[in-house]
UniProtKB/TrEMBL annotation:
InterPro entries: Ac_CoA_lig, ACAS_N, AMP-bd_C, AMP-bd_C_sf, AMP-binding_CS, AMP-dep_synth/lig_dom, ANL_N_sf. The keyword Acetylation applies. Residues 532-613 form the AMP-binding enzyme C-terminal domain. Residues 88-479 form the AMP-dependent synthetase/ligase domain. Keywords: Acetylation, ATP-binding, Ligase, Nucleotide-binding. The lineage of its organism: Bacteria, Bacillati, Actinomycetota, Actinomycetes, Micrococcales. Belongs to the ATP-dependent AMP-binding enzyme family. This is Acetate--CoA ligase. Pfam families: ACAS_N, AMP-binding, AMP-binding_C. PANTHER family: ACETYL-COENZYME A SYNTHETASE, ACETYL-COENZYME A SYNTHETASE 1. Residues 32-82 form the Acetyl-coenzyme A synthetase N-terminal domain.
Amino acid sequence: MSDKIDYLLEDIETITPSPEFVAASPVPTDLDERAKADRLGFWAEQARDLHWHTPFTQVLDWSDAPIAKWFDDGELNASYNCLDRHVLAGNGDRVAIHWEGEPGDTRTITYAELLGEVKRAANLYESLGVTAGDVVAIYMPMLPETIVAILAAARIGAVHSVIFGGFSADSIRQRVEDANAKLVVTTDGSFRRGKVLPLKDTVDAALDGGGASVEHVLVVQRAKNDVSITEGRDLWWHDEIAQVSDEHVAKAFPAEQPLFILYTSGTTGKPKGLLHTTGGYLTQASFTHRTLFDLQPETDVYWCTADVGWVTGHSYLVYGPLANGATQLMYEGAHDFPDLGRWFELIQKYGVTILYTAPTAIRSYMKTGRKIPEAYDLTSIRLLGSVGEPINPEAWEWYREVIGGNRVPVVDTWWQTETGAVMISAIPSQTSLKPGAAQKPVPGIVVSVVDEQGNRVDPGEMGLLTITEPWPAMARGIYGDRERYVETYWSQFPGRYFAGDGAGVDKDGDLWLLGRVDDVMNVSGHRLSTMEIESSLVDHPFVAEAAVVGATDETTGQAVVAFVVLKQSQADKIAATDPVSDLRSHVAKDIGSFARPREVHIVDELPKTRSGKIMRRLLRDVADGKAVGDTTTLTDSAVMSAISSGMAQGS
Ligand code: ATP
Ligand code: MG
């Protein structure tokens, strides 16, 4: 494999952090140096930033590889670390959560109040017979009680399994049964674009004829829709919580106590249930959160827009920010309700300083145009983060310019459900930024971009991203299926973790994510990354979003087929041209004639997972004229029917 990615060898203009940003940064400047000198010592030092009921003496035990043990003889409590210790340090009055409901109702919750709620919920769980090691399934929208339900499980050593609130009854049943959940916590309903989704009904359907391990369902009242209550099984949260004490002592649990099970987004196939444990996970989630977001807990208002049902919600909405004593915004509803200004209105209202979101959101605002964000005062923002997919340079620039006022750093953070916390990112006070690149392994993380034989690739070549040393937040396997874990991630390159993502290294040694390896195309012997062609398309002034797949082609083996969403703001200009032929030549000019798309399809929307990632495998099926594969994690099946029928009509 020696496919060149030309732009990795070009001079790339970097953006250096402003002197004011650097001067104000609390992040030590020698992290990388210390981590390189003594990696395990470095992680031990980060772990000691947490409160340990029993200090650890061992750092890493890799004898049962690839299942690691970190800080194994230490004991701690994740909930204590996120709550009690801040209150004991005198920060009980600090706001933990500014919560805004979709209809506009609000709540402000301090660390002391959140601790009180979590103590009650811990008592409630215990009164229902939930003990350490039991699994609590949480199927909820974005409510403060969702965080309470999570931390209460952690507090008593129970394992939470959060199921994204948009999943179907079948998906809930599978997850509940996979983990033998004993308790389910849900709400009556949730608000979504002004409508009420009946979550409790969906749980009822999931448990009807399945989920036999479930003893109780706790129902938080939110939307006040009618629900049916199964006597003996279902209990109203507010009734029960009023009857339990708000005194609860957090017990110590071993560092390797299971903390949660979480399923991947399912972009490439059936979701995998990853198991994460306590000490190492909390160490890396909190370290990366304060370092990569330059956290100043006394003054920042942090906002991660991810749903708590995804790993980003776990590490950067629950554990990272709360372990660091941050003040954060949590928003219940849709970004476009009642209109597309909602997020910007929230930034203005709460004075958000750090925003962490996904390229899919950024590109959707690129589609509707900068007029919407420009109508709000976004000057409170001092740092922007991106996660979930590769961010095209064009989207990175737009994000920085329009949302960040051309002033602030943007960090692109690469990681996965499996890695538990960020693995590759710039440090905003220290790294000269390159639009579109994730850039550097986090201090203490060691990666290598290799070819299929496992040899390190040269700069400018497309390779496979591997992680060569164990890290604290790494998954401790796929729940109940060690073999599948080993097979999926550790068999391609023995002793090394293979993430499934393609990457390249530029001439300065910085890392660029090039999309999933499964999506790499082979056109007349040229291997092409989806990212490369999609970025070229998004770079064209008409294009907001693009997805590229390799379709079977008799002459070239595979041919490039592109699906593009055009910018609404450019409609007049587009109408006066032939966008399809423009875009085909644009790519040919930009990358080379071998990359010229055989077809360009203009579509209204791209198929995405519920976490917002483009599902190229479905588009590949369409491009090949095959039946479309598994769509259980697709957000909106109407998108695929619209694309398929558009193709049939030769759009
Ligand atoms: P599945 O593994 O079930 O197919 P998934 O990989 O989408 O689902 P997640 O764990 O939520 O599930 O996503 C991790 C993946 O998201 C990464 O492997 C990578 O492909 C992509 N990703 C996340 N952040 C970035 C980023 N900053 N740059 C490029 N890709 C990213
Ligand atoms: Mg994955």
